[in-house]
Amino acid sequence: MPNTPDDQQRINAIRFLAIDAVQKANSGHPGLPLGAAAMAYTLWTRHLKFNAADSAWWDRDRFVLSAGHGSMLIYALLYLSGYPLTLDDLKSFRQLGSKTPGHPELHHTAGVEVTTGPLGQGLGNAVGLALAEAHLAAVYNREQKIVDHFTYCIASDGDLMEGVSAEASSLAGHLGLGKLIVLYDDNKVSLAARTEVTFTEDVCARYDAYGWHTQTVTGDDGNDVAALDAALIAAKADPRPSFIAVRTILGFGSPKANTFGAHGEPLGADNVRKTKEALGWPVEPDFYVPDGVLAWWRGIGTRGKAVQETWNRTYAAWSKANPELAAQLERIRDERLPETLPWPAFTAENGSVASREAGGTVMNAVAQALPELCGGSADLDPSTKTYLKGFGDVKPGDYAGRNIHYGVREHAMGAITNGLAVHSGIVPFTATFFNFVDYMKPAVRLAALNKTRAIFVFTHDSVFLGEDGPTHQPVEQLANLRATPNLTTIRPADSLETLEAWKFAIAHKGPTALVLSRQKLPFLGERNAAVSRGGYVLQGHAKPDLILIATGSEVALAVESAKILEEHGTKTRVVSLPSWELFLQQDDAYRESVLPEAVRARMSIEAGATLGWHRFVGDRGIAYGIDHFGASAPAAAIAKAFGFTPEAIAKVASGLLASV
Ligand SMILES: Cc1ncc(C[n+]2csc(CCOP(=O)(O)OP(=O)(O)O)c2C)c(N)n1
Fold first, then answer.
1. How far is the CA of 69 from the centre of ligand 1 (A)?
2. Which of the listed residues 247, 263, 441 should we mutate to test ligand 1's pocket, taking the one with most ligand atoms within 8 A of CB?
3. Residue 387 CB contacts under 8 Å (≥ 6 apart), including other chains
């Protein structure tokens, strides 16, 4: 059935806002919005549950434009349906400070659920959003269903070429996340070529094999609204996650259609005109939307108001029937913590454990009181110690558990975690060996960009994991995380610092990386371990000759080295500096009290790359670390070979003292 003229106009309104904005900005991606406008139109106007006046409505459907480069598609949809986005905002597409940045950014534009741009991540986020919905529905729904929404995602060829989407889709298929629906913009063109040179597999067959429900919409170059609608109806009805491949034309209607030239550069004024003529749209003025079309779209944006009001009534009834559950959910939604939490105590008796072990103890102590804490590891929880005992597993069809088994899928674990975190209702954690942060760093970076409340646990934090050798021994990873804006990285020295690190992470409104040891660490004494200040004086003189600054397992080493130095009459201070970011946020007076400027003999000790340590040790100090790969050997042998013994360090420190 051909589209009605009204449908055509409403679809074209999306298209021409998008290409006019790209043209005005003289940069951007016109091809995707032109080709995918009809699928987006069908989804937004016939299926998506939303209220444009309240983009934070908790039970709204979630929409993720995984192919974030096509951002003008979502901005056009948001403007047309009446979100707080103006025509002027569209006219300042990609300009400094505008609400319409080059790729959609969370916290920046109402209606954007998550920051997308690095291809594949958005689909991973969508799996996380759908998993959050499934978990929260299992936990909170009673007679009344207060959690009941779909997650929709538009994904491109690039999204589906990226491994992260494969990992995430594999897990979504295994878990049977039936309320996840992906529309694949199958236009057979990517940035630099047609996909016949890069991407020729049968994508639907792959999704079939993942256990998804798959459909193909082939007619009318992806513009057949009735066919798209029917596919979405079938997708919603099927209990499996759904994948709808829609055969589209990149740059539909334009002279550059079907070529990679339509992907990522403005069409050019002449081609914009030709496209408008070809699709029957007035050439002038730019950013034109006929009044009737806009009014109709605005009606779509307000339609959800009544749906939300119905939900409000359902919620009120649920809340009345389940007051304790409601109080819990509202606390979590408001990102408040319980007034007290049953934190464990670490003492000389129980405190000499690996920091991974201490981390597991802390998590399990507070898990009952923090139902929002959910997560898992990439097939490593016996090693990372992050399993929440007695809280069940997320399983196919049964999502109430709080332990998520990600399998060996670090990258998807990160992307899914971002989806869980942005959904609201869950504070997710991940766990893997520190070295494998490289397998999930793109998602950790996006957690930082999204400022998600996510806790990344990394254990086996140094060459001292021993025999597994250099493939497993992190060296440069701390430097990498510390260079990432918005991310707080903490490497605690013992069980007490691990406890304090978890206290910080739980309360923090952004992402935290906890870097924990495999090996046992001595308890460094009952004290005020000021992890939240990033660093503090662990021991030593008010007016030291020398300051040893260390993190993690090297703090105990610094203490041992200090003993030797003291025996030789060197007044030595030991500073524990578990978090650079937190320390650098302290005022000058505090930093000066920990690292007095006047003491020039300063040595940092960390079993990793020295990059960046000079800011703490100063011009004359020594950054003592490991600027090469590790080795396969028992930890003690590595320590000896790499100069990480009290004697070796005391010797270097004495030399430093003599030279300043
Ligand atoms: C991880 C990642 N690698 C590379 C890019 C740069 N890039 C943006 S879009 C794109 C490919 C575009 O092809 P497709 O996904 O089919 O989008 P379409 O051409 O249909 O707009 C590339 C390589 C990116 N955004 N993310």
1. 7
2. 263
3. 360, 376, 377, 381, 403
